[in-house]
Write a structure and sequence with these properties.
globular, 10 strands, Ribosomal Protein S5, domain 2, four-stranded mixed beta sheet, 198 residues
Length: 198
């Protein structure tokens, strides 16, 4: 039986205390308590579409603003993804999604390359949704990308609602991750002509 692809990571600073438990081969169960309601909703959407089980606990300096909490959850989630994947042997490596949500349409392409790169083309007006400022979406995905060691391209193609746009982003990233981490029996070692990813 293959080893369980899971990780538990904790990070504590003077600004936040974050704990993440991730099981890549789950069923989409999510328990998230960050103190930012909309952000918890986004993490649940990501977990469900990725079919990964996710537990997130964050105690942060919300009296300042949610920025530190959201960025630090991204850091720890990225570290958990990287740890759970190990050497990425046998995984498909690439994943993509074109996801509609009512008025919103989002395109995501993901490569578990080992080389962090984010292109985030999501143009939204600055507004606050359930304690979550729309400009923090890019901060979160930048932190995930840098710590997971993947290449991520996100394009918001159209939207009339910031809520729908951001939820479509999180769901599309979940779908792309689900595809990228899938095991392909014909792949031996990492899917790379170099023999390694990174």
């Amino acid at each position: 039986m293959a080893a369980a692809r899971q990780a538990g990571v904790q990070r504590q600073t003077r600004e936040t205390d974050v704990q993440v438990v991730l099981r890549l081969d789950g069923h989409g169960a999510c328990s998230s308590d960050t103190g930012v309601g909309f952000f918890d909703h986004m993490l649940a959407a990501f977990s469900r579409t990725a079919l990964c089980d996710l537990e997130v606990r964050c105690r942060g300096d919300l009296h300042v603003e949610p920025h530190h909490s959201i960025e630090d959850v991204g850091i720890v989630l990225g570290q958990a993804i990287r740890e759970a994947l190990g050497d990425r042997a046998g995984v498909r490596r690439y994943g993509s999604a074109l996801l509609p949500m009512d008025d919103a349409l989002v395109r995501v392409a993901l490569d578990l390359s080992g080389r962090p790169y984010l292109l985030f083309c999501v143009d939204l007006p600055l507004q606050v949704l359930g304690g979550f400022s729309t400009d923090l979406a890019q901060e979160f995905w930048r932190a995930v990308t840098a710590n997971a060691g993947w290449t991520l391209h996100v394009d918001l193609l159209r939207s009339a609602s910031a809520h729908h746009a951001l939820e479509a982003v999180w769901k599309a990233c979940g779908l792309a991750l689900r595809a990228a981490v899938e095991i392909e029996p014909r792949i031996t070692g990492p899917l790379s002509t170099k023999g390694v990813l990174g």
